[in-house]
Amino acid sequence: MTTRRAILVIDDDAAMRDSLAFLLDVNGFAVTTYETATDFLDHFESGTVDCIVSDIRMPGMSGLELVRRLKADASACPVILMTGHGDVALAVEAMKAGAVDFIEKPFEDEALLRAINEALQTQSAAPTDATAKREAEARLVDLSPRERDVLRGLVAGKINKVIAHDLGISPRTVEVYRANLMAKTNVRSMSELMRIAITAGL
Q: Response regulatory domain location, by residue (predicted)?
C-alpha cells in the first residue's frame, strides 16, 4: 500500500478548511488543517509534510510571511497560496519569496489538485537553478518586445489598467497581449506564467 502524501491546509475560514480537507482526503491525501499560520508553526515538524496549501490573507501571520518564515528556516516544503482576486500582486510577491504556486479563488477542484501534484513532482525532481533558468528563458524566447513589457508589468503585480497607462495602450490591448503570452509560453494559468518569468529573472 502506498503512503498517502501529507498535505497541510491553513485557512481561517472553517467552511473552506472543511471543504478542502474533504476534497484532498477523497483524492488520496492525508490532510491536516490549521486555522492560522501561527497555530501551524507551533506544531510543524520539518519532513512530516509534503505540501502546504495556505490562504494568503489571514489574521496574524499572512501567507506571504509564512513563506518567508519557512524559507528562513530552510524548509524545502512547497507552499501553494490561495488568493482573492485583489491579491494577485501579493501572490506574485510571495512566489518571488519562494511560494511554488498561487490559485485564485473561487477555483475548480481540478485546479488545486493539479497545482498540488505539480508541486509534489517539482519537489521530487527539482532541476538546478541554472537549468531551471535556461528552461524558463527558452519558454520566453519568442515573445515580442511589447509582450515582454506587458509580462514585466504583470510580474511587478500591476493590473491591466496600470500596465496600459504605463505603455500608452488600451486595457483591451493588454488583454490581447496577455492571451498571446499564455499561448506562446504554453501555460495553463497566470501563476505558471509568473513562475516562468520569475525563474527567467524577468
A: 6-120
Ranges of beta strands (E only) in 58-181 are 79-83, 101-104
- As a whole number, mean pLDDT of residues 70-98 equals 82
C-alpha cell at 74: 530552510
Q: What is the pTM of this model?
A: 0.76
* CA 187 from centroid of its chain's CA atoms: 13
Separation between Cα atoms, residue 5 and residue 27, nearest integer Å: 10
Q: Which domains does the chain have, with CATH numbers?
A: 6-124 (3.40.50.2300), 129-199 (1.10.10.10)
Integer CA distances (angstroms), 166 to 46, 85, 158, 161, in order: 44, 22, 10, 9
Q: Which three cell numbers stand for residue 199?
A: 525563474
The 10s digit of each residue's pLDDT in 119-161 is 888 765 555 567 778 888 888 888 899 999 999 998 888 888 9
Q: At 185, which helix (H) or strand (E)?
A: helix 171-185
3-state secondary structure of 99: coil
| Residue pLDDT, tens place only, 58-75 | 888 998 899 999 888 877
